[in-house]
Amino acid sequence: MAVSSELGEQTCAEDDYRALMGSFPTGVAVVTSTGADGFPRGLTCSSLTSVAVSPPTLLICLHTRSSTLEALYESGRFAVNLLRAEGRRVAELFSRPVDDRFAHVAWAFSAASGQPVLVEDAIAFAGCRVTRSLLVGDHAVVLGEVTDVTRAAGAPLLYGLRRFAAWRPDQDG
């Protein structure tokens, strides 16, 4: 059931929390960075939100054991690749432990930020400079100031209720 916190209040069970968050549909992104060895790292991330417009800042949450998080700390930079509706294969690829995920996708280093961009599978890309991070449980909350943005036409990939879906704009209006 529930576990007690330091204040004597109840904390919900992990499975209940996962079910709650799974009920909240979100866009799907692949967060990328470059390690000290010069090789790209990346993972699928749905824990992404806008924080501020001035300066433009977003927030991502990555597991503390992630090699992408390690690369992000080494370089002080990361990129957010918002996946297009047809990007389910890429979302699944970057969510699994695969040795060289980048060998299976078209990508390039961004001229502006130097971070890996998924050139065919993203409808938008944001290069970011790490400004702050905070450890919370088994994840790092990372704030990034957006330094450059590239956008392309297309609909975003969504995820909720443990399924992928495509954005379907209202036909009436």
Automatic annotation (TrEMBL):
A Pfam family reported for this protein in Swiss-Prot or TrEMBL: Flavin_Reduct
Domain Flavin reductase like: 21-166
Alphabetic keyword roster: Oxidoreductase
Claim: RNA-binding is one of the keywords in the record: no
Coiled coil: none
Highest rank taxon of the organism: Bacteria
Protein name: Flavin reductase family protein
Lineage of the organism: Bacteria, Bacillati, Actinomycetota, Actinomycetes, Streptosporangiales
